[in-house]
Amino acid sequence: MQASQDGYLLIADITGYTAFLRESELEHAKDSLRSLLDLLIENTRPPLVISRLEGDAVISYAPEGSFLQGQTLVDLIEGTYVEFRRALDLMVLNTSCTCLACRNIGNLDLKFFVHYGTFVLEPLPAYTELIGTDVNLIHRLTKNNVTGDTGYHAYVLYTQAALDHLGISELFHELTPHDESYKDVGEVKTYLFDMHPVWETRKHRYHTAVEPKEAFDTIQQDFSLSPAILWEYLTKPQFRSILFAADSQKLEDLKGGRISDGSVYICAHGNNLTTHTIVDWHPFEQYTIQSPTPGGYHNLMTILLTPHENYTTAALLLGEIQGAPRIVKKMMGIFAQRFLIPTLRSGFEALGERIEADIDQGKVAHQAVVDIPADQIESALVESLAQT
After folding, report:
1. Which fold has domain 212-360?
2. Quick check: bond before 47 cis, omega within 30?
3. Could you tell me how many helices (H) and strands (E) the chain has, helices first?
4. Which stretches of the chain are DSSP H helices?
């Protein structure tokens, strides 16, 4: 058994299967659940590390210092929920089966439980077990009165300790206080975030991006980080300053304390201030900024991440000046080739050097994705359906 450590504990729990599945329908239910478990496993990525599966739940953790800002964990959870709901919609749309299991696919939903505390990792032959009082607490919280008290069927339950360490005080304004009480634990103060509005907001969202074939130029580099951690380096102002060779950067117009569509980077080069307004925000995948240019025009710039097994490729796609006459586009193109693009290439290299230095100094960890063997998934499926 290893020494104890502090960090975040997360349980993603699929709920909603009917308790009246007939034996002849179990295979259909099993196929649906397998697809959804595969999706959760795929989306539980670094900085989260999967501990194990427990029925239709995925249990994971993130040691202290695994990520640089609290928004990363919040965005990971929301992104997972959006992918889960998108998969459910496709299942409902693509099935013509009328059995009870298939008819009830649309009743499935997903809940998350987030706690910060102390735990011990105990390596076992099949998986890594989490042990400790805080581990017991988060498991207790999965049995609660949330739906009865609030009507929420899909939600994130944060403990007070989790929110304190995430450091997003503005997020409190979007949460519903909720207390649970257990005989052996006492009263536990928690906060709830309803996930259904997240899906309603994002299910019809379209990308606003510079497409590769339309880009004026593309700069890319490989980084030995997971997409979520590289995303932090590409979005936190102090690291964007390196990329854009700026003296400093700051953020304005945050939404609930978080970077989002409409947030603005103020980029300082001496006394010259440039605004980079986010017009498209898809965490860990891509974001697009709009910047003003001389003459009252503007251009778009998209940063796109492509994950690989042990590294992530970041590509910066520079769009042409929008709405400008041809002569202006030509002149700005010459300026970009001589000054902007070399600056950005150097910025990518400098950011890569900073990341490697942070890795060497232990400031950020390069975490591998945990592979879950097929037999563990099969055992989880059997356990889940046996409980219905």
Report:
1. Alpha-D-Glucose-1,6-Bisphosphate; Chain A, domain 4 (3.30.530)
2. yes
3. 12, 15
4. 26-43, 70-94, 100-103, 133-141, 146-150, 160-166, 196-202, 227-235, 237-243, 326-335, 341-360, 374-386
Residues in the chain, how many? 388
Q: CB under 8 Å to 233, separation ≥6 — which residues? A: 68, 223, 225, 239, 351, 354, 355
For the stretch 284-303, pLDDT in tens is: 999 999 998 877 788 899 99
Phi-psi sector, 285: left (phi>0), alpha (psi -120 to 50), beta: alpha
Domain 5-203 CATH assignment equals 3.40.50.620: no
Positive or negative CA dihedral for 19, 23, 24, 29?
Answer: positive
Residue whose pair of structure tokens reads 């605004």 in the numeric block = 275
* Domain ranges, ordered by start, for the chain: 5-203, 212-360
The SS3 of residue 21 is coil
Q: b vs e for 273-302, b when ≥16 Cβ sit within 10 Å of the residue's Cβ?
A: eeebbbbbbbbbbbbbbbbebeeebbbbbb
pTM beyond 0.85: the answer is yes
Q: Which of 202, 166, 364, 351 is nearest to 280 (CA)?
A: 202
Angle made by CA atoms 75, 289, 275, in degrees to the nearest 5: 115
Q: How confident is the model at residue 56 (pLDDT cuts 50, 70, 90)?
A: confident
The answer to whether domain 5-203 and domain 212-360 are alike in fold is: no
The residues, ordered by sequence, that sit 6+ positions from 7 with a Cβ below 8 Å of its Cβ are: 61, 62, 63, 64, 66, 116, 119
pLDDT digits (tens, 9 = 90+) for 172-210: 678 999 999 988 888 999 999 999 999 998 888 778 899
Given a contact cutoff of 8 angstroms between Cβ atoms, the answer to whether 231 and 283 are in contact is: yes
**Coil, strand, or helix at residue 242?**
helix
Percentage of the residues of the chain whose pLDDT score is greater than 70? 93
